[in-house]
Amino acid sequence: MSKEVNSESVSLCPLSTTAATEQEMLCIFGTGDLGRSLGQRFLQTGYKVVYGSRRPHSCGPLPPGTQAMSHVAAAQSARLVFICIHRENYDFLETLAPQLKGKVLVDVSNNLKKNMYPEANAEYLQRLIPGAQVVKGFNTLSAWALQNGPSDANRQVYVCGNSLEAKQAVIEVATKLGFTVLDRGSLTAARELEDFPLQLFPEWRLPLKLATGLTAFFFFYLLIRDVIYSYVVNDKDVSFRIMASLANKVFPIVSLIMLSLCYLPGVIAAFLQLYRGTKYKRFPDWLDRWMLCRKQLGLVALALASLHVLYTLIIPIRYYVRYRLAAHTISQIRENKTSPFDTTMAWRTDSYYVIGILGFGLYLLLGITSLPSVSNILSWREFSFIQSKLGYLTLFFCTFHTYLYGWDKFLQPSSYKWFMLPGYMLSLVVPSVVLVLKLLLLLPCVDGTLTRIRQGWERTDPEQERKKLLLT
Amino acid sequence: MSKEVNSESVSLCPLSTTAATEQEMLCIFGTGDLGRSLGQRFLQTGYKVVYGSRRPHSCGPLPPGTQAMSHVAAAQSARLVFICIHRENYDFLETLAPQLKGKVLVDVSNNLKKNMYPEANAEYLQRLIPGAQVVKGFNTLSAWALQNGPSDANRQVYVCGNSLEAKQAVIEVATKLGFTVLDRGSLTAARELEDFPLQLFPEWRLPLKLATGLTAFFFFYLLIRDVIYSYVVNDKDVSFRIMASLANKVFPIVSLIMLSLCYLPGVIAAFLQLYRGTKYKRFPDWLDRWMLCRKQLGLVALALASLHVLYTLIIPIRYYVRYRLAAHTISQIRENKTSPFDTTMAWRTDSYYVIGILGFGLYLLLGITSLPSVSNILSWREFSFIQSKLGYLTLFFCTFHTYLYGWDKFLQPSSYKWFMLPGYMLSLVVPSVVLVLKLLLLLPCVDGTLTRIRQGWERTDPEQERKKLLLT
Amino acid sequence: MSKEVNSESVSLCPLSTTAATEQEMLCIFGTGDLGRSLGQRFLQTGYKVVYGSRRPHSCGPLPPGTQAMSHVAAAQSARLVFICIHRENYDFLETLAPQLKGKVLVDVSNNLKKNMYPEANAEYLQRLIPGAQVVKGFNTLSAWALQNGPSDANRQVYVCGNSLEAKQAVIEVATKLGFTVLDRGSLTAARELEDFPLQLFPEWRLPLKLATGLTAFFFFYLLIRDVIYSYVVNDKDVSFRIMASLANKVFPIVSLIMLSLCYLPGVIAAFLQLYRGTKYKRFPDWLDRWMLCRKQLGLVALALASLHVLYTLIIPIRYYVRYRLAAHTISQIRENKTSPFDTTMAWRTDSYYVIGILGFGLYLLLGITSLPSVSNILSWREFSFIQSKLGYLTLFFCTFHTYLYGWDKFLQPSSYKWFMLPGYMLSLVVPSVVLVLKLLLLLPCVDGTLTRIRQGWERTDPEQERKKLLLT
């Protein structure tokens, strides 16, 4: 839409006073796929395009309406030069330094891997041609977006550069192409922009691996305990339980463990600070990394909890469950006995479900507030209120839900098949530890010390401490 | 809140060094409803306001504390002039060109329809008064927000203009009024800003129409097949099935078809590129338009799938279902027979439900990542991973879910009533075709060629190809 | 990640032409906890840091690699000075005015309460040192983020200030530290930035209080009616109903009432405008405040509605329900009677569920569109279409759902226990009133007048009206 509008407005108001709108000329260095796509897009938006090429007369098919020249000639005909060349070939640009002086060079390059070079491509370019104004930009877009204009995940363009005016010129082009531009500051941000398109969920890997590992472990554990045991000892084939019943045990177990793993590092960090008596020592690396993926841990746990909810809600429409209920009713009639209504049982199961629902509700709330647009409008006081207070409440509800599930079965020896504990008991270990440790931290004496430490207070003689600090 | 704060800070710190905060004067041209609302809001924020009017002494009630002057006098008393006049009346402004020279003119106008004029209002204004610095802005706000300050969907203000300083001055006013400002670049973006308030879900129309059409078709199809057939042939009134049972067949059918329609255009495009041997030819218009509404197609399908989930989950609390289950149990007892437990049936129904749940879970994930704030933080590598890989997985799960539903009923002649196939069979056609075509595209030889084409490679003699390209 | 990248790029490209990247020196006034945390972070990002202190030789442990000087000396060694001092101690800075002239002063301070001082800290600072360029910033970050760099809810930094270049310098530092920066305009926005970290869901308080009050009231009301009545009159202990059955009555009742309270103020406002014959009089304060928390009212109501859905969906897996169903089947067999299938009953319950599902679906849609990132991309025409048209449709569906629940029980005297009406009847009062009033407003004659008023038209003699307006 924007494309159409812009091109029209250009062709229909030739009297406009802005020089920028009168078919400005843009220069592209490089006639490869990237250069051709970009050039075509510029043309459609109403720009004139000139290509700079080593072999201007044999550089392959270019978009109709453009022309190829030598680099020197092309550079002189435009103020903005888009560098669509691989970084490996940048060095020849050094010879063009006089022609490129004062020009805005837009570095759209990406690398194939992270950390291939000691400095960002754009910084390297700036070093080669100190007289030019290098702007990094457009590199976070997909090829599709570069060729066809903004689409869904490609609406936002990041630029960075040391010159305000140069950035402004590039922002104007990007806006005309229909993109929303975000200024990321000086050229030092170029490295970040160049790494961005290469990443594939880096912070999600650890949580996903953990979830996969735990799921696999508990699946086989419960497979042995529930299905194979039954087959070997009772000679009963209950393999159909794998699809729904077993999964509905594995998911909540893994979910609860992962939820508690979100809160464990915070508790460990607090005890570490208490032990050290200062907050000015860095945490060990593994703790830092753990703390950085808490959000992802929590969201994976939420996904598993949601599956648990859906699996639970389909229980009454499952054939197996309907069959068992009917069989129970039939046997009651045939044996002509009536089981009396058990009020304790009613209380127990209702509480169990209700605590689970409330826990899941809070959990969803935590998930919603971790949406970027929601967490952005929260002050950190609000954010920490939700993620910490409500987070621990969620953990408490979910743990309590599991304890209610166990009820009085904890001490029944009949539930220990082949010396294997029921799965839910295993899942209670970590959350219970976390909740107990958190309770300890809330004791007034401990809480007071911790608060003081977090406000900058340090234990022991400060003079001695300072020396130690200076030595590290 | 911000309003209050700003007005206070103005009145309480008169020693502030910024001239901008000392009751700056703003000029408004036009004393209609828009001008009056805007003026009132300026007053409340701590600005002084002067109106420019043709008949300064009989221009109707103005906000108390403001005054009306002739256009010439009003223009001279302020640096910023807000033009609250209909575009039809802009031409008289040309006579004020000398007085408006160097002023910042804020064009807040909107049109009643798209494309009423060849150029944007703001560009027309700039052409009339070349010496002024025209800034487009505020026009995307509702009248309510203009009068009362920012509220929910009215927090963001877009501005565009050719002069950086002029924009900065307008941004300052908007920020003081409590809005968040987004700079959309030069004045060429004005057209887009002017079209924005006129649109009413333009990209949603096609998907919604399609959903309505498909829903209506399958509703009547199944009405005949399930309800009317039963009434005519078996003389049984099952009209109550319309509310829940029938809807719960229509929704998943339409949802699955629409989900597969999200992926069909991508597959068609790939085959088109393979056939043409190049990616440099534009797709036909219908394909382009289809591809642009894929997200909306998918979200409508997700909404229908969610309804399907809720409809399914209420099955066991429906009177009809409870009655039937009880009747079945009672008949078993009265006839004194016992149906044995059918392990295959247990496997089959459980698999059917579980695949459905997993498909829906993935579907929800796709929906969440299409939230603007989430897709913005994804790199396009991540976005395409989710939308393409996970998308096809979702389609596969949902299709497989439907096949499991059919199971061995595909070849039962008893399910062909009045020669009408069951609805779910019809729904399987498009998804199956999409999945098969996608599988073909994943064959190594096809995939390799396609990848090369998408990297810019072109089939056949490039010399000949270039000539063809130059001729088109 | 960004931290690592930035520090590397600094150390590895010392030839970079940008002065900004060559170990720029930053000055921090104040060696308290805030100053030390900030300094450590600067060091890690590749800056040099110097502290200004009253007692440079005994100011406690500083991050290794930094040095402390007198304020005068420190100020001269850097262009940017971060003021990490409590506002109470700002006054001594006045004596440093000559040294701070032309410097960029970054005010990162916060207050303990709102409105402690007549002007914002940053404005006070600017007044003390008129020759400096004060920029407010970083104050919305948590201590954790200041010390360790951006994390989840701490990615966004707001700055404001009167000097564009000063802001640019601060934005550059913030970007290098890894934050995303949002320019909030001139220094008058400082007050808002300083209030931001102090707020704890201000707009949520009223809705949450209301929800708590209504929930408590209906809980005790229904406790008496359902549980205590049964105990006293029938001598039956149904206390187990408290956990699930009772809650599942309270939640939908409160949810429906709160949903209707979202739409009541809009209706009241319309009638007020009709009565007054003008839109230029401000609404009473209570109405304004009510209208401002409509979104929060609606979201709390949505949360309660979601709980209602979950509570309803677990009905068939509850022990009590299963017991009762089995008991019913058993009694039917023992008494050897068959209850015939009741088509009306099937229609009624299905309609009841289906209308509820559709209402909840629309409700979720309203909730999704109130996510900031979604409402931001909607034009206000679209937003008001959803929130108004779809909103009233949602209210209608939910009200109708409740009426269907009542069905023919409205006039049954047996449902009036101890003269107490069933809860759902009470919940119908407000929504019914709102819907009837809205219907009245949609009558052509009323709608026409209202539209004219909202377009600025005023009733009665305008001359007289203007006089009245001028007098107020």
UniProtKB/TrEMBL annotation, chains A, B, C:
Transmembrane domains' residue ranges: 210-233, 253-275, 296-321, 352-378, 390-407, 419-443
Example of a GO MF term: ferric-chelate reductase (NADPH) activity
Compartmental location: Endosome membrane
InterPro entries from the entry?
Fe3_Rdtase_TM_dom (IPR013130), NAD(P)-bd_dom_sf (IPR036291), P5C_Rdtase_cat_N (IPR028939), STEAP_metalloreductase (IPR051267)
Could you tell me the superkingdom of the organism this chain comes from? Eukaryota
Keyword field: Copper, Endosome, FAD, Flavoprotein, Ion transport, Iron, Iron transport, Membrane, Metal-binding, Oxidoreductase, Transmembrane, Transmembrane helix, Transport
Give the catalysed reaction(s), semicolon-separated: 2 Cu(+) + NADP(+) + H(+) = 2 Cu(2+) + NADPH; 2 Fe(2+) + NADP(+) + H(+) = 2 Fe(3+) + NADPH
Topological category with respect to the lipid bilayer:
Multi-pass membrane protein
| UniProt key word Transport | yes
Any single biological process term in GO: copper ion import
Where does it sit, as one GO cellular component term? Answer: plasma membrane
Q: Which cofactor does it need?
A: heme b; FAD
Of which family is this protein a member? Belongs to the STEAP family.
Concerning PANTHER family, the annotation shows:
DUDULIN-RELATED (PTHR14239), METALLOREDUCTASE STEAP4 (PTHR14239:SF5)
What protein name applies here? STEAP family member 4
The top of its lineage is: Eukaryota, Metazoa, Chordata, Craniata, Vertebrata
